[in-house]
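not sure who needs this but someone in the group chat was asking about protein-serine/threonine phosphatase from Kineococcus rhizosphaerae so here u go. i didnt clean anything up, its just raw.
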Amino acid sequence: MAGPYPGGMSSAGAVDPLLLRAWQEVSEGIIVLDAEEWRVLHVNAAGAAVYGLVPDDLVGKLLSDVFPAAVGSDFHTQLRRTRAEGGLVTWTGPVAGTDRWIAVRAQRVDGQVLCSFRDVTAEHHLELERDELTRSLHRSLDHTTRLLRLSEALTATRTVTDVARAAVEAAREGFGAAYAALSVVDHERQLLRTPFTGDYAPGAQEEWQDLPLDGPGPGTLALREGRPRFDDATSLRTGFPELAHRWETAHVRYLATVPLVAAGRNVGLLTMVWHEDLELSENQRATLRSLASYTTQALQRALLLAERTTAARTLQTSMLTTDLPQVGDLELVARYVPAHAGDQVGGDWYDGILLPDGTTLLVIGDVTGHDITAAAEMGQLRIALRALAVDRDDPPAELLDRLEAVVSSLRADAILASCLVARVEQNLQARAEGVRTVRWANAGHPPPVLVLADGTARVLAAPPDLLLGVGTGRRTDHVVDVPAGATLLLYTDGLVERRDDDLDSGIERLRAKASGLASGDLAAGLDELLAQAGGAAGDDVALLAVRFHAQG
């Protein structure tokens, strides 16, 4: 609606019959009000319908009588503005007393105010949904960014104190905890030791410094139970009355205690304290578990680095996934064989990840180099890949491309690594046929070998994409159907490389020997395969095998 309406309305509010007829036909609501008393002079059917009425219910009545909820509302305020300003006034807002939203165009014409409006409730809800989706995406991005920053900070640590400082900082910045602590389990002395606590309340540090593992308290209980605890002030005081002085000294109103468990063994405890009453949401608890998972790996690495000559080798072994997911009818078995003694380590790794949607993700890779730097870089890649994999449901090629972006941001100098990522997939039709699909992408890694139940073995050859760290080009997905009884073998180049032969010949030798994986115990088959290879190349070897058992 725009401009005055001479000839359409008289000073007494009479409206040209033709204009009235036109107003009745339009889909927008039309209402004419006396500018002094806000008496309804005219309203069309669409306008009355906003309140579930008909025009005869409104004409000649005061706005305050027929729409009492409008008095004092934004609608009322905007009408007064229209009367005062005289020009075209527009606004969008709720209809007082209803759950609807309208977009209004109003203008004073002589002694009347003419309003046209349309129902924008659906648009408003869509806008709210869009805003919530945007906020959700921002939260997801923030969550991923914080986890990646944490993984980078933790993989750069070398001592237990370094790990504790990084974890405490993450707890305070990411969760708003008043203070936090990382404790280490001393199995020999049966103590929970806290080397770094951050800023405790005066006198509180002595209360938490060294605690007996069999003593009372939510932290030691969480370790014994093997699960996180979230206690408010009431549960702390009723559940652990003998420690009331501890809660008072530290001003504890809410406490989170999360065990740090590596390979089924308690290595530490992450504790967070808040001074106010609260309840962590499920999303916050999931993030806290991720923090604990990353902290566990970093803490274990630091503890192992503290050992003498075998520390570096044990470090790399600890980074490998020892508890591979055994999902449905998939049997996962891995082997890692170091080639060097002392404190030399390599960058070979494997991983099996159960994604949130139940899909199994297989990973094998090899960082260039044979030193502690290579192991640290491997840890960075493994943690980053895990974080990226669970954050978004990407095909392997896109996952490697995203990992490439992380690699380029981790260090000033390049990290070079080969990596193969594979997903085990199955739709309903394939399940009925007893066939599963493996979708994989290869960043410069040796190709997988597929062994059928009858012993037939073939190399899943495909042009490999560039190594991680090169930073150019995009990677490609490849797909193969895998029948029941087959075994898929992923490996690093230490299994097939020989000083006196080329890589292709080594892969062909592996294909010929891999038929032994067709039946029998899969773990024993991998051991036999390693024994036949003999480690001739003097390099680390990582193997990850998956047997596709028949589905029930």
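also The mean pLDDT is 82. if thats useful
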